[in-house]
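Chapter summary example: a protein plus succinic acid.
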Amino acid sequence: MSQRLLPADFDARHFLREYWQKKPLLIRGDGHFVDPLSREDILALAREELVESRLVTSDAQDQRWQLRHGPFAAKVLATLPAQHWSLLVQAADQWHEGARELLREFDFIPRWRIDDLMISLAADGGGVGPHFDYYDVFIIQGLGKKRWRLGGHADSNSPLLPDTELRLLQHFDTQEDWVVEPGDILYIPPNIAHYGIAIGDSVSYSVGFRAPGAAELLDEFCAEILPSLAEDIRYVDTAPALPASPGEIGSKVSAQLLTLMQTLLQDPRPLTRSFARLMTRPKYPELFDEEQDASVSTLSQALRSGATLQRHPSSRFAFHPLEGGCELYADGECFACPTSFVPRLGELCDPFAPELPWQALMGEDEASAQLIVALYNQGSLWIADDEEDA
Ligand code: SIN
Ligand code: CO
């Protein structure tokens, strides 16, 4: 049974209306928070090759900052000073069941918006400096205390401190000043400056969200529609007129181009599909096995012999209802959804749902069997053996 983090009277609808993406909120806990990882567990993750980790150190005046990337040698971690460092471990939810469990509380936000759970282990005075993020974050305070100062709006025009890879703000205008304790949750919307400093040893857990930029969206959209664009969709002169100067590209041409581009956006399907591909793309594709080449018969045989299929723990699923059907998105790929899957999509897209009866679903019809094989071959489903379970 996972622990409750949000207070019993937390009103998610109210939160979405008043705070989400708008203004910060400090949600006080009941003081009974239990850290899912020990300090040793966190240090062990920072030593792992496959785990993304960073170490941020500063001087006593928070004037000079240093950033180092992991993995870190045991000796480095064993000889950290008593103050002014913060060790960040990204995507701890992919490595630790207890860390993953913390995400359960945030299912009032669509699951595909969650990017990862980052852990920050800090010594007294440690932090990552005054900065802003482009995405929302819930920061759950675990062990110890942290002082959080929140500033005003910041964006790509805000001046940054020179000489550091960390994107630290030159100016910080404190508007809120809060000390958080175990179990408190701080919500910070995108583009709000914030500055956390550990008071004694501190552990915090940041639930970060995925918010693709317009450049990424456009890039993905182009990749989605380019293969299906017919050659004959092209620029035409709809109202030819004598040019004032033969070298001029006039504003009528610009309007014409705009119309052409808008026509391409009329169909919401490729747009939705490209967005879904981005939102379900794995954070670390290298954690997936090589593409498999199972067939319906080889996979059915394996399941009959006692193998069990499971969702890959790093998998991201989502679906989109369409008129007369559904599209399923799994780890950046898009699939037409067979009818037998439609009532199960909620479970399939919920990483905390009990496993689906894959074997029974395989037997439903050919389309269901083909979909399961495709999900298995791309690594979204895998056969968990006892060793992998452990
Ligand atoms: C931290 O926990 O110090 C960093 C989290 C954040 O600022 O988003
Ligand atoms: Co931040």
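Key point: The chain has two domains: 12-209, 285-389.
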